Amino acid sequence: MRPAASDLAAPLREAWYYALPSRRVRRRTVVPKLMLGEPILIGRDDHGAPFALRDLCPHRGMPLSAGHFDGREIECCYHGWRFDTRGRCTLIPSLVPGQRFAPGQIHTRSYPAREAQGNIWVFFGEDPAAAPEIPMLAGFDGCAPDLVESVRFPAAIDHAVVGLMDPAHGPFVHRAWWWRSRRSIQQKAKAFAPSPFGFTMIRHTPSGNSRAYRLLRGAPETEIVFRLPSMRIENIRAGRHRVANLTAITPIDDRVTEINHCIYWTLPWFWLLKPALRHYARAFLRQDRDIMERQQQGLRFSPPLTLIDDADTQAKWYYRLKREYLRARAEGRPFENPVQPRTLEWRS
Ligand code: FES
Ligand SMILES: [Fe+2]
Q: What is the pLDDT of residue 174?
């Protein structure tokens, strides 16, 4: 069974997607969010547990998030139907005693929701057990991100993922005195290996042409992991300190994609740099957004694309991983990672 071309471009299902930083959802509150074109309500109950429901009342389609949540049940604002945090209807106020209608047979869809390292994730699909895991950043157990930046791009998921993994656009798009200049272009060779549901750029010393790494003294080393559906995890080690970057990409609908960038660090003095880091993270993401916005003008004409070796090999791997995941799920067999160990060389 081969997935149709239209399914290939759609966001992968049977996958966890980044929803929100934990702190955005306080106890006894709900937050609405469009994810993969579906209206989702993300909430936190009385006990602090996160949950996710389809944000539509099964009665007459009212967003449930417009109603009232008391920490246990959500009351729809239109006719007062109530739902528990698993989406089961518990009360229909208009029923008269003796009317034989059991509210419990009515549901709004419930999605698995999980909290990890200060972020809430929502699962789209039926079987989280066989899906790529939510990334856990080594050295940051029980920590929340020190900085989170989210930016929305007017691009479909594949272009957003490929755009962010693309190593060759740096010198042209991310020129800035604090990062690098166009003249800093140089030849690079990076070793890659397959890793669960993705691939890893093996631990190495980052190139001297990015000034930001120089802030971290003690010979920084970095490892970059890509994992389906759209997660990039960078672990930087400098002496006994660590910095981790998690970039989690969430499709909002077929045309808009959200990039969530979380930074974790163990260096206490990094707090002093936080305003500057926030500024740079934003500037960096905006550069990507602006270039992809312009790219959309060309993509409207559905031109054929030319992915080359080795600079675009990660993009090719992404498409192969996605295709294999769809096939493996459709055929009910284990996923076989199509990536082989390889060193890629490019100038950037
Ligand atoms: S629309 Fe929700 S109770 Fe009627
Ligand atoms: Fe970029």
A: 87
| φ, ψ of residue 88 in degrees (nearest 5) | -85, 135
C-alpha dihedral, 114 to 128 to 341 to 189, nearest 10°: -30
Residues 314 and 175 both lie in one domain: yes
Percent of the chain with pLDDT over 90: 79
Whole-number Å distance, alpha carbon 82 to ligand 1 midpoint, is 9
Single residue among 129, 145, 164 that ends a domain in this structure: 129
Residues in the chain: 348
Task: Tell me if 124 CB under 6 Å of ligand 1.
Answer: no
The secondary structure element, H or E, covering residue 148 is strand 147-153
Q: What is the mean pLDDT of residues 265-283?
A: 88
Helices (H), 102-169: 157-165
Report the C-alpha gap between 12 and 229 in whole angstroms.
6
Q: Could you tell me the residue range of the domain that residue 280 belongs to?
A: 135-347
pLDDT given at position 34: 98
